[in-house]
Fold this protein.
Amino acid sequence: MSLSGDNRRSLTTVVLAAGKGTRMRSALPKVLHRLAGRSMLGHVLAAAQEAGADHIAVVVEPGRADVAAEIAREAPGARIFGQAERLGTAHAVLCAREALEAGDDVVVAFGDTPLITGATLARLRAPLRDGAMVAVLAFESADPSGYGRVLTEGGRVLAIREEKDASAAERQVRLCNAGLMALSGAHALDLLTRIGNDNAAGEYYLPDAVALAVADGYAVAMVPVAEEEAHGVNDRVQLSLAEAVIQGRLRRAALLGGATLVAPDTVFLSYDTVLGQDVLVEPHVVFDTGVTVGDGCVVHAFAHLKDVRLEEAVSIGPFVRLRGGAVLEAGAAIGNFVEMKNARLGPGAKAAHLTYLGDAEVGAKANIGAGTITCNYDGVNKHRTTIGAGAFIGSNSALVAPVTVGAGAYVASGSVITDDVPEGALAIARGRQAVRTGWAETKRAALLAAKAEQKKD
């Protein structure tokens, strides 16, 4: 759901991403840890854009060039604000004060809640159009321990109480604060600047905006969300649980889109994986980022793909690795233990097994024999191999780039090709075989005699 209709107020989404994430036990900032090939922060920024944010402000730890680079990559045009001190969530939002002064509606999200969707952010903002001053995201939990509680009376939201400040009765409440909040643009800055720190932690809590709005006589809306979607990630256990949720979503979407996953739980997808209709994916396949699979393809077991395009009716695997811009055109096929990197296999071309094709162009219906390798690296630079349409490369051949094998040419098995092969020619580059009759028998007798002499000594 998008809020891109006519006559609407502008929306600024503020994403809080300055936490150190010490429980991750990592040199990498918490929000840069990845799920399905994308950082947690990237997932949140994508959701904000999907929800129709006109402007995005991200609050980060000062000096984090890596976080700034991720923001520029995932949300070009987003503004970055530093948070030198950590004095609570309201204080963090006010670090982006300059972005709030335009009077846009505001949605506050968190860089460590990667399961939030654009549809949910849009639902969170929607009550503001109906006159609510504040909207909070909330969920029912069987075990609310650790969460702030959403306090209601007669269906009206009255306040959000952090657990450490809650009374015994309030701690029995199972309606929990998911943390995300929307504030009406006309009042957001006023509410945020009035939040105090008279609480057990001495911090400026964003949820206190609820009680202030209620005291001013304004409506506060509660927007329900599934507990799973609201979960934050604070350590690697929670990261793994979030990965499982995202993989479940991606697998479901692939299945509903017309792909068959023989054993879905063993197939790992990236956020940008594209699977066409009637694609068959066998067990234990990893789709890293940048993979597009056309209609009718078969991906056999134990394949690993990254930055790859498979056109229609391609068959790969089992046990293959494709990476670095590999392209297989319609009807091409590669078999077990084949690796391709920055290479293109033309329509109907085949490499059945035990082959490395790096920096190579293989023409239509060419056949690459077992054990063939393109020798593309000279220790300093990469060089390209070109194999023409209908060419036949014999088994156990090495093609030393830069080199071209013409259309319809043959390369004899076991050859090391260092010069271009003309179209339709046969290239043989190996030592001539010599046969010495009786040599083995004579050699064996000599060895046995020498061994006998050693025993005498």
Observations:
- The radius of gyration is 31 Å.
- The first strand starts at residue 11 and ends at 17.
